[in-house]
Amino acid sequence: MVASPPVRAVRKLLAPFRQPRRSQTLTVLAGLAALSAFLLWQSAGIDHYRQNLALNVGADIIGAIVTIFVITPLISRAQEGRVREHPRLDYEWYTDQVHGATSCVKLLDTFSNLLDQPVTDRFFRAVTLAISRQAHIQILLLNPDSLAVLLRAQEVGDGPGSADFRREILRNLRTLHLFEQRLTEAQRRRFEVRLYSASAGVTMYRWDDKALVSFLSVGRLSGQGAQLEVTVSSPLGMFVEQRFEELWQQGAPMHEFMRLPVTLVEADGARRDFVTSFVVADGAQYIVDHGVVSHMARRRDGHLSAYCRADPDTRYELIVVDDNEDLCAQLSERFADKYDLPRATYVWLRPLG
């Protein structure tokens, strides 16, 4: 849900004063320490100063012990099972929570409007800040080429919440891929995106030990329904977290979907590596890379084969797809959906027996 213009204006006005939670805590502690030192200095002249100081400090220590070890655990246990309901998924509110995350950020959804709205840039800034605090970012989206996409599309139907799921997921992946390219090598180790192919049944937007949880609805998108704010240690939170981990373990990394490492081998054994864009049609792989096409043009004797890094035991023949074929039009449509780029030259990787 997008915030109203007045709300956005207030948030923009307060933005310069926002600080990470850790910085705010240190600022408050420093201020209280300074105030305490000032008050102790002001009262140094009273009678029986040392006795009064010892009595008050001792009483405060006892109160702190009772609060920390008795009252706080009781309150925490009472809050663990509490469920707060949100009428819909407010992406700006969630971004505010990510802004203060210090341990982890996890996202599980079919696709997310969080990655395709004006709030996206602010979300990525919050993610970058979380990474700087050593938080681990994990994002799980549905594989756009899986059968589960068709099933989910049938569940939503043609109602007001309907969408072209495959194109929406591809749009998310383009956004995430571009963001990942801007990260440093150290930052990328804490930012992971994977694609799952099974039906998830739930969605999760987690920050630290809390999460917004929803169940995939029939006839509308998950973000349009009620969101349950729970702690991860609650029964519902543990159930959704376990489902996330199951899908994460079987998920495929995003970079394997967006780029295909290919090695060209000449007749004399000379090898050259490429990392190419690619599309899949009817189970066949078609790569798009000007460097590959140029290399093929220089080796017109035909003694050139290819290997994919993911399948090093299979040798492929390189065949340029004719621009006049209907297949070329189909590949161009898929290429535009995946990379938002115009028609290109496609090279078929035909397996050799």
Annotation keywords:
353 residues; alpha+beta; Endonuclease, Chain A; Pnp Oxidase, Chain A; 2 domains; eight-stranded mixed β-sheet; six-stranded antiparallel beta barrel; 12 helices; 14 strands; 46% helix; 24% strand
List the helices and strands and how they pair.
Layout: H1 5-14, H2 21-42, H3 49-80, E1 84-86, H4 91-99, E2 104-108, H5 120-132, E3 136-142, H6 147-156, H7 165-182, H8 185-188, E4 191-196, E5 202-207, E6 210-215, E7 227-231, H9 235-250, E8 252-253, H10 254-258, E9 260-266, E10 271-281, E11 284-288, H11 290-298, E12 304-308, E13 311-320, H12 326-339, E14 347-351
Parallel strand pairs: 2-3, 3-4
Antiparallel strand pairs: 1-7, 2-5, 4-8, 5-6, 6-7, 9-10, 9-12, 10-11, 11-14, 12-13, 13-14
Helix pairs in contact: 4-5
What does this structure look like?
This protein has 12 helices and 14 strands. By secondary structure, it is α+β, with helices and mostly antiparallel strands. The longest helix is centred in the first third of the chain and has 32 residues, at 49-80. It starts with a helix and ends with a strand. It has 2 domains: 84-255, Endonuclease Chain A (Endonuclease, Chain A, 2-Layer Sandwich), CATH 3.30.870; 259-351, Roll (Pnp Oxidase, Chain A), CATH 2.30.110. The strands form 2 sheets. It has an 8-stranded mixed sheet with strand order 1-7-6-5-2-3-4-8, with helices on both faces. A 6-stranded antiparallel barrel has the order 9-10-11-14-13-12.
